[in-house]
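name: query_chain
kind: protein
chains: 1
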Amino acid sequence: MECRNYSRFTSRRDLLARTGFGLGAAALHSLLGSTPATAAEHQFPNFAPRAKRVIFLFQAGGPSHLDLFDYKPAMKGRFNEDIPPSVFGTQRITGMVAQQDRFPVAPTMYGFDQHGQSGQWLSDRLPYTAKIADDICVLRGAYTEAINHDPAITFMQTGSQLPGRPSFGSWVDYGLGSENQNLPTFVVLNSLPGNGMADQGLLSRLWGSGFLPSRYQGVQFRSAGDPVLDLSNPPGITPQMRRSQLNTLATLNTQLHDRVGDPEIETRIAQYEMAYRMQTSVPDLVNVSSESQHVLDLYGPDVRKPGSFAANCLLARRLAERQVRFIQLYHRGWDHHGGLTDKLPVLARDTDQPAAGLIMDLKQRGMLNDTLVIWGGEFGRTPYAQGTMKPDSYGRDHHGRVFSLWMAGGGIKPGYSHGSSDDYGFNVATGGVHVHDLQATILHLLGIDHQKLTWLFQGRQFRLTDVGGGVVHEIIA
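structure:
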């Protein structure tokens, strides 16, 4: 939306100038055609959705596909050989390995086996994911254009490597709106790795609304104190007093909006009312005392630890039950340039059982059919070692040419493997899925044509998938 300078008083000169601009804009609008400004005018969904909500389990830092999902037995016999030039091609490298004289092959030290009737190849670091092998679809040909964290994670979350665009959840909120008036449509949960090594930071713009109205931005829940800042009434303020204050404030804001027309004032009124309703809905949401021990056991021993990935996965299920549309979990610490063999097992242990438990829990409640779950990061890791390498000790740099992620529920084909990498896990061999393809497919499962979910900004229609993207129909059940 364009930035406006709202003024209380208008001179005759201002009036004539604004009238002229208004007539010109009206004429231009008639030439270009109608531009929908609200979700209702877009009439989403465009077709029958397969999923009603999304839970995105984002592993920030870049999980190594070669140590988790992409089995490359041929690499075992190529330990410490150089990656062939024919494979390396014109790959850009990061500053972390720019001074290396060579790029030696680093086979995984972990074992792989096939699981389920589908025969999914999975690392022995993922024993619980192995139990849901027939429920997940593993994409082994995903790829991105970015090679560093900030542009890569921004690209995955907003469709652009440059900051300033609306986040995925904001687009979904704008397109579909809310099914629960007492909770935000878009909720964000963050967790730290079990070893306490957070690596890359997370910026709130990753769940921001960009140029969309601010009412579409994600709401971050905290793990300590009030889940949302200032949610509780201060001492001495009763609910009745708060209600009276909000009524007076809404009256004043409405009068101000009538005078100046700033749409953000409407957002402010709506957010005050949402905060008031959340004072009742959120404490009930985060109180897990009603959960059975059987359910808690699905998520693992950390489920009662506030802010853990396990606790957030359980909270994600409770949010999904309450029809929250887009639930974004971030788990940090996957940036394993060195000491991968010490760090990756910790991160896998953090996420393996809770993610699998979430799938099992949704499935036993009949919710997996219309809940889309995604597990993945911004890119993968290189098949060559960074720094000193031993068969049981190595690190890996960023790698966007090919990586792996999995999806489940919400219309996704279960027990299916899509795409592949070459013998080195370096390039896409078959079934390549670009970030924009992934975004287009997720929107499609929600009943949204990604080319129609747009917003007019700076003279052109923007969308999550920018000018690319196509639905990957092969992975849809």
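note: Residues 1-41 have pLDDT under 50 and may be disordered.
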